[in-house]
């Protein structure tokens, strides 16, 4: 567990104007920084004697006297996890266990890896939910009375709108209902219960989709599917974070995005495998019905597996079930000292959160009324909004339609779509490394212009005459594949990672709900409108539209989204305490400097003063080390 930032005196929130890095630390929103410090390490400043006394009192209060001594040692370790070698209360065996936790961070109990598998399959379910409809779109509109590309122009627009409405139904539900029932579901049923309920809904509604007989019926089934997608997409990463050791927590939470990409690819595999299934008896359209139902199979695996995993210790403690929480941690940590350490630390953290909650107002309103939080909310809104308006899901949901219009046969269109899914997954794997080395902001600023170019390339390829079919198909496929390769390490993993770290700790859960609802809302908008765009704007105009949004996204990132990579809580407060206007003006001045230094290769280009105080401290660190 990493702890940082020392407590500061609490003052009222005020809007600050930061003029220099020296003044910046003085003018930070100290109340927010104080809250971060308290939540980052509630044990800071306590003596060892006081910690031991508090741990024994804690054991007595919650009838944990049989592990009272372990809790005392755990409290001492939790205060400073890297200083355990200096604690005389620990045995050599205790220190060896804690040392191995650092040197062999992936040496974990099998129960933790069972949980990792559960979360990975749950993410894959979500990816399949998104893309099995891709192949089905080639068949069900014709059978259910909304054929595409036939009839009068008015009929074509009407049918395209209905196609978009049915495909976007789950994301409409996520935005208006699904994400907002996450909190009550988790409160009453726990993390495992919520995952079980949502996986059950996903499985049942996937099978329901396969027996529909009209487009309103299919719309209803897919809308209910959103009740499975929305809460699951929020709960599974939280469950992974609450059960994982600190050393591998970030990597496990990042795997949600990577295995969602795997599910997207596997959705295309299901479409290909079921494409040639013939009708049987009185069942018409058995192939597309099985495609839509196929995503229910991994959901059944999640349902059956979830009860074999431990419940979240944090949720159990929130319900007063401390003995159950300790046994859960024993399964997840494999050692009584580590379990006692984490049990006591979660306890003091929950107490600090409850104390803060009693003193604060409406936390949702504070996302927008407190300047530091408002800037974080704006940045998260931009990256989540652009994750949809960069155009990725028009390919994920409608690539088969696009490839069919370019000249592919139906089976070739689905196979080409599988290529997109495979690249999306393969290029998501390096993102686990690049997101913490290259940086969130740099990844976005690099990939947005490239995504715009490749979308234009895809759209303009439709100007190639149908008579030159092979060239047209080749350019369309190349444009979409190159787009997938630059999307996956950029706008793929960055939005959820950025949103998870940008908010202060005391409103982080509320902030993540806001960010998640944002992405699902605009997912619905994109899914709804793209078929109409294809008919009205033609493929050239539709892809040009999203190419233009990628250009807009580049400037939104440039002006309003600061870097958050590898920053402590205090440094994040510094970053988001810089007024928006000042940040945008600084970045605008950086553009010609960057061009002269890195494009024209000019030397002796005068640089601007640093924008943040911690940047000066980072520059001093190497020299002080050498000295």
UniProtKB/TrEMBL annotation:
Under catalytic activity, the entry for this protein gives: myo-inositol(out) + H(+)(out) = myo-inositol(in) + H(+)(in)
Task: Report the Pfam families cross-referenced here.
Answer: Sugar_tr
Query: Per the UniProt entry, what are the Gene Ontology biological process annotations, in alphabetical order?
Result: myo-inositol transport; polyol transmembrane transport
Q: What are the start and end residues of every segment in region (Disordered)?
A: 1-25
Where is the chain membrane-spanning?
112-128, 161-181, 193-211, 217-239, 251-270, 290-309, 378-399, 411-435, 442-464, 470-489, 510-530, 542-561
Instruction: Enumerate the PROSITE patterns for this protein.
Output: MFS
One annotated Gene Ontology cellular component of this protein: membrane
Q: Would I find Oxidoreductase among this entry's keywords? A: no
Cite the Major facilitator superfamily (MFS) profile domain residue spans from the record.
115-565
Keyword set includes Transport: yes
Q: Which UniProt keywords apply?
A: Membrane, Transmembrane, Transmembrane helix, Transport
- Region forming the signal peptide: none
Q: What is this protein called?
A: Major facilitator superfamily (MFS) profile domain-containing protein
**Which lineage?**
Eukaryota, Fungi, Dikarya, Basidiomycota, Agaricomycotina
